[in-house]
Structure formats: C-alpha cells, structure tokens
Amino acid sequence: MKKQTYPLYHFVADRLIYILLFLACSVCIVTVAVLGIVPAGTSDNSSSVAYLFLLTICFAAAALLFDYFRQAAFYRSAQELLESDSIDAMALLKPGVTREQKLLIRAMELQYGKYKDLLKQYRDAEERRRHFTNRWVHQIKTPVSVIDLLTQESSQPPGSQPIAELLHSIREENGRISDYLELVLHEARLEQFENDVRAARVDLFPLLRTAVNRYKTTLIQAHIYPSLTGDQAEVVTDEKWLAFVINQLLSNAIKYSRSKEGSKQLRIHIARQTGETLLSITDQGIGIPEQDLPRVTEPFFTGENGRRTRESTGIGLYLVYEVCRKLGHQLQIQSQEGQGTTVTIRFTERSVHHLSGSEKLGDKIVSLEVANAR
Question: With left for phi above 0 and alpha for psi between -120 and 50, is residue 176 left, alpha or beta?
C-alpha cells in the first residue's frame, strides 16, 4: 500500500468553516475601521484597506501553519496505525497535542486494553480446550481398548471366560465412556453458561439419592458404603448443573478410594444453618497432599495423585469449581493425605440470580478455601 501523509489541504479543509468565519469577520472589521477613519469626500485609500486585510490574512495563515506542524506528527502516526497489521500498533501513535486528541488517545487506550483482555480470555479458553481435548482423547482410549480386548476374548472357545463376566466388564467400561462424554459436554456448555441455567428451589435428598444409585454397582465393587444423613433442605440452584457437580464429586470419591484395601465409608451430610445450607461429601480415600491442595481446582492439574491414578484428568474439580462459582455457591475442600477428603458446598438464598432479558447471571467471585483436616 502506498504510504499516505497528512497533507496541508486536508488540515485546512477540516477547519474551512473557521477560516470562512474569520475572513467574514476580517472584512467586517476592516470595513468598519475604514468607514470610521476615512473622512467623507477624501480620496480613496484602497491600498491601506488592502494592506490591512492582507495583514490579517497573513496572521491567520501563520497561526494555521503553526498549528499544522504542531499536530502533523500525531496525524502521521495515526495514518501509520491504520496501515499497520500488528495488534500492538497502538505504540506507534504519538502523544496528543490538543485536549481532544489526548481524550481520544485515552479512550482508545481503554478500549484497546479491554480488547487485549478479551483476546487473552479467548486465547486462554482455546488453550484450555485444546489441552482438555488431548487429555480427554487419551482417557477415552483406555475403555475403548479394554472393550476391544474383551470382545476379542469373547470370540475365544467357550468356557475360557464366563459371558456374564465379560458383559459386566464391558458395561463397566461403557459407564466410563459415558462419564467422559458427560464431562466433555458440560465443559462445552460452560462457555454459554448464562444461556443454559435455570434457577429454582431444589430438594437435595432426591438429587443425592439419584446420584448415589447411579454409582451403586461401582460402589459395591470398590467396597465403598455410602450414607446419606442430615436435614431435609431445599436450595436455590440449577438442578441439572448441581447434579453434574455431585456426580463429579462422587466419581472422584470412588476413584481415589477404590485403591485402598478393605471397606470404606462415603458420608454425605446436609446441615442447615442460619441463612445457608451445607452439603458435605466425605470419603476415606487416599487424600490430597498438602502442597497440592491450593491447586486442585486449576485446569489440568493432577498433582501427586495424578501420578498414582492414571484415570486423573485434572478437569473434574476444575469444572466443579467453575460451576459453583458461576452459580454463586462457595466450595470448600479439606483433606488429609492417607485419611480422606471432605468437599463442602455452601448454599445461600441469594446465591443464584434469575435470568431475564439482557440481565446476566451474577458472576460472583467465590473464594475457594483449602485446608488440612486436623
């Protein structure tokens, strides 16, 4: 592209109305002055009038030229900004000279800062999505491979392995695939959370019973015995998203408890306090190392337990935290390595805001508290 400059005639054209007004005023002033100083009947003094008029024009032209050279650097830098392909081209813009230019630059810097923040958010989201997809593909390959091996075994001569055991193993691996599919679907929906939430009063006990029954077979196989205790309580939340959170917490509790020998307890307790309701899920699993606690809700963080448990993706607790944050529920995690983990969701009456028209869900910043159980 041919480089353009800021020609003088553009500068003059932008101020044409002021120049015309100045000329009109000059004509009026000179006319009044001539009529006042030239006596009636004297000779024509047109040369003096022309000289006076020309003098005013010269002063006006000098002022315009001075203003032009004063602002030319700013306009040239603005032209370079238009021709640049870099997103950081704002650095090319020279400091403003007039108050309007300074105000314009300030407004542009503010908008540019918001644009960069938004761009960073999109880039971070895309990076998280890429990492999530890679991990998800690796995780789902495991049950697919197991099912493939099981189907190969089923083609062996009769009596090599009972069909019932094969079908049970296939059903278990299919359940894992279903969980992974649910995880990726909810991760995709999380970006449009405001369009996929409906606040209502939800009874916790039926929701929890449904979630426990979903993992009934897995709980029996892992020798984990669940108990549901506490007060009957209704909370203001989104039932579908809360069910997802509870399923993830139960899945984690089973995942990190099955490796321990013997029978284990899984305690689910509801407690009502003044103005709030607490839902606690306590397992007797391997627990979370103290150094990993502050980072357990970071995306793709697996920590020490991720090295021990190959099933860890570093996504579950991150999504749980994000959903609770968007719903306005406070999430608290307490754990002691080798003893177990307690996850508590704190509900308040004003935690979820109804959506209507252009009104958006209150995106409260909810603190994550992590501590070792003593």
Answer: alpha
Note the pLDDT tens digit of each residue in 347-366: 987 665 543 333 333 333 33
pLDDT, average across residues 195-209? 88
Rounded distance between C-alpha atoms, residue 330 and residue 346, angstroms: 5
Q: How many whole angstroms separate alpha carbon 228 and alpha carbon 269?
A: 6
Tally of CB atoms within 10 A around 361: 18
CA 174 to chain centre: 32
Instruction: Name residue, tokens 């021709």.
Output: 83
Alpha carbons 255 and 337: distance in angstroms, whole number: 15
Buried b or exposed e, range 215-241, using 16+ CB within 10 angstroms:
beebbeebebebeeebeebebbbbbeb
pLDDT at 262: 83
Amino acid letter, residue 88? D
For helices 163-190 and 239-255, what crossing angle results, to 10°?
130
Give the domain ranges of the chain: 8-97, 198-372
> Per the CATH hierarchy, to which homologous superfamily does domain 198-372 belong?
Histidine kinase-like ATPase, C-terminal domain (3.30.565.10)
If one counts every other C-beta atom within 10 angstroms of the C-beta of residue 125, the result is 12
CB 266 within 8 A of CB 257: yes
pLDDT of amino acid 154 = 63
Instruction: Name the one residue in this structure whose structure tokens are 């015309």.
Output: 20
Cα→Cα distances 34→46, 57, 200, 350, Å: 9, 17, 86, 80
Query: In angstroms, what CA-CA distances link 168 with 82, 87, 147, 257?
Result: 66, 57, 11, 21
Q: What is the DSSP letter of 196?
A: S
Mean pLDDT computed over 30-58: 66
**Beta carbons of 323 and 241 less than 8 angstroms apart:** yes
